[in-house]
Amino acid sequence: MKQIVTFFLFTTLFFSFSCGQAEKKNSDTLVKIETEFGDVLIKLYDKTPLHRDNFLKLAKEGFYDGLLFHRVIKGFMVQGGDPESKDAEPNIRLGGGDPGYTIPAEFDSTLFHKRGALAAARQGDQQNPEKRSSGSQFYIVQGRTFSTDELDEMTNKMNIQRAQSVLRKHFIKHQEELNKLRSEGKEEEFQLRMAELRELADAEISKLPPLKISDKKKEIYTTIGGYPSLDDNYTVFGEVVEGLDVIDQIAAVETDQYDRPLTNLKMKVKVVD
Question: Which is nearest to 257 in space by CA: 96, 91, 141?
Answer without folding.
Answer: 91
